Amino acid sequence: MGNGVKEGAVRLHEDAEAVLPSAVSSKSDHRQVLNSLLSGAVAGALAKTAVAPLDRTKIIFQVSSKRFSAKEAFRLLYFTYLHEGFLSLWRGNSATMVRVVPYAAIQFSAHEEYKRVLGRYYGFRGEALPPWPRLLAGALAGTTAASLTYPLDLVRARMAVTPKEMYSNIFHVFIRISREEGLKTLYHGFTPTVLGVIPYAGLSFFTYETLKSLHREYSGHRQPYPFERMIFGACAGLIGQSASYPLDVVRRRMQTAGVTGHPRASIACTLRTIVREEGAVRGLYKGLSMNWLKGPIAVGISFTTFDLMQILLRRLQS
Fold this sequence. Notes:
By secondary structure, the protein is mostly helical. α1 crosses α4, α4 packs antiparallel against α5 and α7 packs antiparallel against α8. The protein starts with a helix and ends with a helix.
């Protein structure tokens, strides 16, 4: 009888030891996901707010047939400020925040999860992924985020290129598009968005992670300083946005076709129209020089904020 009780107690103890690591691991995984979601949301909000006036100016040029130049861009900024006020430079930023906060949260969180899954698959536990899985993790993260938040991106583009009288707020945009153009319009331009996100997100995350890995290998420091993270993020943004920019122009034209006078058309037709009317380089890369200014700043802020938030949250929890 005594032996039976002892054996039962031993088995109970062994079962508890087997269950506890699993429960702790599950709790730790949930905490990591929440940390990634929160860090990504803060990173996206800060980055986009910082460059919102430049972003709005770029969109206006992308969806018009006006020739882009730095002088014309800053003239547009100046006249917008004179006629509509300082805060008008951030018009559409509320829609941007509604989109960017979930988008960045999902993208960064998904990237961390894809890294873990691919790391386990390739046998790289707790180490930097090899190049191809690193590129794949970024592309999958961007595709996941874009798929889940696309209608908000379309709404933000509409608000950026229209006067205040046309749409009073985000909900008004949704209501008018649904009534006047149909619900399908909310996903008009989705295909070029995904096609553009794959190289953009893939190359951005790949470049940033690669530069951090090289820094760790050659500097001897486990973590780069914040200003180094900013530089790595700026390089990532420059490469990612340059690779995917023509598709960004195409998707903006498709998103705003209902309010800018351009006919609603397929990707191929939109590409042909831009090339025919404005030229391949001048049309498809219109506003790229402004993107080279705002893109590295935004991506640098975004990646740096995410990393620092992750470090801060881990320290607070420990």
